[in-house]
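Re: the 519-residue chain
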Amino acid sequence: MTLLLGLDVGSTNVKAVIHKPDGKVVARATAATITHYPRPGWSFQRVDELWGQIVRVLRAALEQLPDSKQVVSLAVASVAEAGVPIDRTGRPLADIIAWFDTRPIAEMEWLATTIGADTLFVRTGLSLQPIFGLCKMLWLRKHEPDAWSRTTRWLNISDYVAYRLCGVPATGVSLASRTMALDLQRRCWDDDILRAVGMPVELFAPIAEAGTALGRVTAEATAETTVPTGATVAVGGHDHLCGALAAGVTEPGTMLESLGTTDTLLAPTLQPTADPELGRQGFSQGAHVMPDRYYIFGGQYTLGASIEWFRETIGAGQSHAALIAAAEEVPIGSYGVCFLPHLRLASPPNVDPASRGAFLGLASGVTRPTLYRAVIEGLGFESRGVLEALRSFPEAANLKDARSIGGVTRNRLLMQLRTTIRNQATTVLEIEEATALGAAVLGGLGAGVYPDLPSAIAALKYQRGVIEPVAADVDQYDRIYDTVYRHIYATVAPLSHKLVALSDTTAANAQSAAPESSE
């Protein structure tokens, strides 16, 4: 039996999933992605902790097989906008600044002044935000100069894991296009941008197309992970794009909704656009893992993250099933309570890293089920705003085939309200782990299991289900959206900015007053 291993290094969990070539899962293992939050806006992973979790899930998944040598290939999907600086020996030199960390705001503003947001969008396809790899590199150069002076390579997380497994440094073009250092039209590192910011191009790994065979698992990596020595390690990619590959979302007119920690709307295109207005509204473009395909990308930065935040805090740890069942008894509109889900950043069409979440309409009679339903409705309203803005551009005007994947699709209340609020049906693909499957497919391509990616997509077998809007509820949700929700961000944003400024000042004062740590 030929088996393919896909590794998914996500914001919340690390997953190792072993598949047959038709996509059937034969083994899997999951461990938490350990993330540290030292102060508001700061988030990081320690490289040794992350690698330890990766080793744990690889071993656990492979232990479930009667013969681990049946695994012929591996590729890695990971979050983007996060990387590992390494020295000439491959040793990591700093913590991984999480993709959603917003500390490099000053570096983002410097890029806006030095190069210009519109210029950066035209060249890289990215709306200028503090999350991108180049901003993090500039932050490290300024704030951790000793580590930066010894850095010889910057590897995205997927690239770093592959490097640990086979010893070959490389990056897929889908992850390279999230660094803000890639010339998207030419699909190569942008010498002009790097020269302007004083970054040598040698810091960046060679670029390869997804599914390219890099090398074979080394004996040293086998001893640590139990992945068979000699298995092919192939170039992986950005997790959302790997999920899109598994879902068959590779052609214009299709749209992926990847519903997990975040809510991603991804629309494939044949060519990137040079219209800077797309970037001014917070949308970005990038290279697909499918060769010669691009995409427009938008969404919410906290979907499952908002739900989990509620469950752990206001929900007092109740099960998702209990929270959903109680909220289903609350009427449309949550008794006048609205929720703005900006727990990390604002969503397109608003570009605002200082925006924060909010409940509006609270009263003494508001209960936990009411607040939970307000969160779910707020996530649906936010998704509608993103989708309407995206469809205003010609490249995405004809998005009719919406396909949903991800763990949050199991939240029946969210899926029903989401389709009703947007008045658009969605097809839910019953893929157990779509992102890991997409990575496994890329590994199989590198090992020669599939002749090409269209053949690989055609070979995958999974069920589909369609969720239709509740027609009787559409008008009422339209009224709530038009009269209230679409005005919330502009109303509360000025106060959010003041609160963030006060919080930053308080944190800085506390840090300067604290005794030096021996850590």
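The first helix runs from residue 47 to 62.
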